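hi! just following up on the protien thing from before. the input was this:
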Amino acid sequence: MDFVTTPFFDIDHNKTAIAELYALNVNAVNQRYHEHIDTVVRPDQLENICRLSQRISIYQFVKSVECLQYQMCEGDIPEKYELYTIVSKLITAACTDIAHTSELYSKANWG
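and the predicted 3d structure came back as:
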């Protein structure tokens, strides 16, 4: 399957997770640049942050989540926050799914 056919986040059910991802991203950037930017996000801004096309390729999805992971890799975020680990595991799972659906994977020798 080449396309994710459902929204990445259901805004009504995942506002907390989206807000936490955003806050971690801001926290990491603050650590990188020694800034103190506020992490408060209004509900209308939150909806724009998590908006994705309903038909995004799995490759774009992985690259976008890898970008988020990269942005959050500063300071103590990777060691201190479980949400960073969850994002990393999401990337691994998506990449594994891509590999397992590849014809090249199917033709590869076991062992």
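Confidence is low (pLDDT under 50) at residues 1-9.
Residues 3-101 form one domain.
cheers
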